[in-house]
Amino acid sequence: MIDHSLVKRFRQEVGDRLAHQRRLDQANGLPAMTGEDERQFARALISQVLEEHARGEIGLGRTPPTVEEEEALAAGIHAALFGVGRLQPLLDDTQVENIDINGCDRVFVSYADGQELMHDPVADSDDELTELIQILAAYSGLSSRPFDTANPQLDLRLPDGSRLSAVMDVTVRPAVSIRRARLGKVFLSDLTGNGTISPDVARFLTAAVAARKNIMIAGSTNAGKTTLLRALANEIPPSERLITVERALELGLDQFPELHPNVVAFEQRLPNSEGQGEISMAELVRRSLRMNPSRVIVGEVLGDEIVTMLNAMTQGNDGSLSTIHANSSMEVFNRISTYALQAGERLPIDATHMLIAGAIDFVVFVEKRNDYHVGGTLRRYVSSIREVNGCDGRVLSSEVFAPGPDGAAVPHAPISCMEELAAHGYTLGGW
């Protein structure tokens, strides 16, 4: 067992020395350390602090830590500095899907096989849990994000790609939800293998991406929208320049240069304590259009950026991808209209429907079914694909893939752009 009080103390010491070195480098006009250089320097500082601790114990007539204990302490300190402290073992477990924390000692873990189990505490107190989240907020993403009484909400991407959402002061105890990115480098073939999509849907989506169709992926929370978005993005040729726009970096397409060597990842910037410096999603989408994109990928549409994004799709940026929360493929159009009403343009519904008809080609709906209680597993699968056909007072669409006997999408109606898809290898007998 690791002495977590020692880990906390040594993490503070190493962090202070690391910050001191940063200040010295800045004062001497030296370039800032890269992330990897900083980690290597931190390892040297950890060894130095542990050596000083061992000498101190010997000087007091006590037994210093064994080699194994020292290695465990070093790993704990490093995780506390650059990882997620006592959460690290859960994030290292490839079978963990979600981690929900309702206070430091109320930890619930969901696994890939559908089990949900209570786990050991991840901190000794709620204050320590809050401190851990504050450290993560300071070191994750492109800019430091506050998490305190003035800023009680936080969304960020952890170093392993998992998505963390935290709140404090609006709940009795600090609450944290972590959604694991179990499939970081994922392809449509992987989703075919695990039953998320059928081989025919995979061929259709491959052709739709190649034909530069604008695709909106819809579904409920934790249905697998982002995973499908990554898989679709990995069908884009490496020669294309991609601009991603996200509230908190999550897609991570820039982490695989062999697939996407030319990627610029934008992250929304929150206002500082004086309320200054905010850069909204809508502003980032507008900025992305000036960065010579081949395609713009918006990680998740949740607000007024939808109008800017739809305008981008109608201005020659074909092949754009995005995700949105919805309960069905048909409901997507109403959800977009609601977001558009909140935008500064205050688009009326009929104008929004015209914009949707000119911008979106296909809506792909991902469903999550909790049927593991009857002996199965938690299922995620594409159940519907809807083609946008035009506008006549409302958005006209047809469900080209509809739920089959087991709920998974099967061909249902003719595809109006079949010739374009056929040019990219997709054929379907009879249509």
TrEMBL record:
List GO molecular-function terms, semicolon-separated. ATP hydrolysis activity
**Recorded superkingdom:** Bacteria
Chain ranges of the Bacterial type II secretion system protein E domain: 87-355
**InterPro entries associated with the record:** P-loop_NTPase (IPR027417), T2SS/T4SS_dom (IPR001482), T4SS_GSP_E_ATPase (IPR050921)
Q: Which SUPFAM superfamilies match?
A: P-loop containing nucleoside triphosphate hydrolases (SSF52540)
Q: Which protein family is named in the record?
A: Belongs to the GSP E family.
This one is known as: CpaF family protein
